[in-house]
């Protein structure tokens, strides 16, 4: 079994500014770390590695220093890191990001059984990248997975929360799973693995290696247009606690919202 985990380096939204002219996010000075849900995906891959002897890969598309996040995954127990980095990738939206990641998976792990992603990245929060990779590869996608029930005989069964309780869903392998924070508790880095992680080779990939051109990715390959961006201001006013049954509270919220219009 081969498992690819997609990890993204994110920033704390309190640490970034928005460039009013370009409407781009100015991340200079922001501390980068692995998206928390992607650590749940890494943990799931490691649990499957322990159970089935799976070969595990972590892949990220990011700036050259994202190599350190891949080494963090290796120190947790992942076998191989793939860093997709190229100036041409800057400004990629979800369409271009998913294209580059898909081509990297096609080239470096063409026979992978499982692609694991986080349910969303905590900075842009679109939840599009995982499903878009699945769509491009023509494989099944199970999103917002809270529990992996089983994986055998070419199929995977998962549990996810639904309005009326838990839902069990199954799909044929290969499949893409996007996981929530409920799926497990990520482990810490292991001292023995840290030594290996420091000296392991990371596969560094540019767009030429993926047969992509600068027109396919980055700003030219990104149809998303950011119309407006605003910093959310904290609303002034005191907190008001509502009591009563769920229906009463819902009714009161609706009345208050109507009155506030
Ligand atoms: C309004 C807006 C403005 C933006 N402006 C900019 C900008 O100015 N500059 C800029 O660089 N970006 C910008 N972005 C972000 C960029 O478009 C997204 O970060 C990127 O396409 C991934 O989408 P996401 O973060 O929503 O990931 P999601 O779809 O929420 O991520 C889900 C999962 O997909 C995987 N994944 C996502 N991205 C990666 C990755 N890079 N590598 C590996 N795995 C990944 C992870 O497993 C992650 O948990 C902007 C996004 C929006 C919505």
UniProtKB/TrEMBL annotation:
Pfam families: ETF. Residues 22-214 form the Electron transfer flavoprotein alpha/beta-subunit N-terminal domain. This is Electron transfer flavoprotein small subunit. It comes from the Bacteria. One of its GO terms (molecular function) is electron transfer activity. InterPro entries: ETF_a/b_N, ETF_b, ETF_beta_N, Rossmann-like_a/b/a_fold. The lineage of its organism: Bacteria, Bacillati, Bacillota, Clostridia, Eubacteriales. It comes from Youngiibacter fragilis 232.1. Gene3D superfamilies: HUPs.
């Amino acid at each position: 079994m081969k498992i690819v985990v997609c990890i993204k380096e994110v920033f704390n939204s309190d640490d970034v500014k928005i460039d009013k002219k370009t409407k781009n996010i100015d991340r200079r000075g922001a501390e980068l770390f692995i998206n928390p849900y992607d650590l749940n995906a890494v943990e799931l891959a490691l649990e499957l590695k322990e159970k089935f002897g799976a070969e595990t890969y972590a892949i990220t598309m990011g700036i050259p220093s994202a190599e350190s996040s891949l080494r963090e995954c290796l120190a947790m127990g992942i076998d191989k890191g793939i860093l997709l980095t190229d100036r041409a990738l800057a400004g990629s939206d979800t369409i271009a990001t998913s294209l580059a990641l898909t081509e990297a998976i096609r080239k470096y792990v063409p026979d992978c059984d499982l692609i694991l992603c986080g349910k969303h990245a905590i900075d842009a929060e679109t939840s599009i990248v995982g499903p878009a990779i699945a769509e491009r590869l023509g494989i099944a996608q199970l999103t917002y997975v809270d529990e992996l029930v089983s994986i055998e005989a070419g199929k995977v069964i998962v549990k996810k929360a639904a309005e009326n309780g838990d839902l069990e869903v199954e799909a044929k392998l290969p499949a893409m799973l996007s996981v929530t924070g409920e799926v497990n508790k990520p482990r810490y880095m292991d001292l023995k693995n840290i030594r290996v992680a420091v000296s392991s080779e990371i596969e560094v990939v540019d767009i030429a290696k993926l047969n992509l051109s600068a027109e396919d990715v980055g700003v030219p390959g990104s149809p998303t247009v950011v119309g407006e961006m605003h910093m959310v201001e904290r609303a002034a006013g005191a907190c008001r606690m509502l009591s009563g049954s769920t229906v009463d509270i819902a009714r009161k919220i609706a009345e208050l919202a109507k009155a506030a219009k």
